[in-house]
Amino acid sequence: MSALLEVRNLEAGYGRSQVLFGIHLSLSASEMATLLGRNGMGKTTTVRSILGLLRPHAGEIRFLGERIDGRAPDRIARMGLAVVPEGRRIFPNLTVQENLLAFAANRCACAEPWTLERVYLLFPRLKERASHLGNQLSGGEQQMLAIGRALMTNPRLLVLDEATEGLAPLIREDIWRCLAALRQQGQTLLVIDKYVQRLVRLADHHTIIERGRVAWQGDSRQLGADPALWHRYIGV
């Protein structure tokens, strides 16, 4: 199976400070993969490079078989790559429904595109809060809205950066249920998060980054069987 996303020997950084040293990962359509590691190890820099927000120093990033490293972020987004960013970044002065409709698009010509109704079925709480402004939502509701907004673009690949960061345990469970439902529906997902116990139940394979390098790659069976690996590279 050809890769939907392929990152080869990626090197990137900020100014003279190099952060990534030869990162490689691959993700096929309908798979769920994770990018794991402690804070400051290069996960967000990898995501920024994939999204076109940071120009790599070296290496290749391919999406749908085309090189996208160096392309503008809006061109990459139009190819079907969406992100739920760390910090959510919803529009505070727009209602829930306006936030969702502002991003509605079906550029990939999906047979069953995401609509308001589908998003509200996934997150009933958003339907209840449809007329509320973004700044009137709780943190968990804002995260649901950020996910729903990204889905409204009908992406081929959805990237979630720190999907459950700062959320209460009950709200985290809602997000895990959402990710499980999306995976079952065939949505391709790249998830950055720290809750390995939940991720090994959901994802197909994992990449652990340590100081800008790939420290380990494998499937959920391998990662689930080696808790010492979690503590070595992910535990605080």
Structure description:
By secondary structure, this protein is α/β, with parallel strands linked by helices. The protein has a domain at 1-71 and 194-236: P-loop containing nucleotide triphosphate hydrolases (Rossmann fold, 3-Layer(aba) Sandwich). It is 34% helix and 27% strand. The chain has helices spanning 43-50, 73-78, 96-101, 116-122, 124-128, 139-151, 169-184, 196-202, 220-224, 227-233, and strands at 3-14, 17-28, 32-36, 58-63, 66-67, 81-84, 157-161, 188-192, 205-210, 213-219. It has a six-stranded mixed sheet with strand order 6-7-8-3-9-10, sandwiched between helices. A four-stranded antiparallel sheet has the order 2-1-4-5, covered by helices on one side. The longest helix is centred in the C-terminal third of the chain and has 16 residues, at 169-184. The termini are far apart.
- The helicity comes to 25-40%
Strand content: 25-35%
**End-to-end C-alpha gap:** 36 Å
Q: What general outline do the C-alpha atoms trace? A: globular
Q: Give me the secondary-structure category.
A: alpha/beta
The neighbouring-strand order within the major sheet is 6-7-8-3-9-10
What is the fourth-level CATH superfamily of the domain at 1-71 and 194-236? P-loop containing nucleotide triphosphate hydrolases
Q: What's the total number of strands? A: 10
Q: N-to-C SSE series? A: EEEHEEHEHHHHEHEHEEHH
Question: Which topology of the domain at 1-71 and 194-236 does CATH recognise?
Answer: Rossmann fold
User: Which whole number gives the mean pLDDT?
Assistant: 92
CATH architecture of the domain at 1-71 and 194-236: 3-Layer(aba) Sandwich
Pick out the low-confidence regions.
none
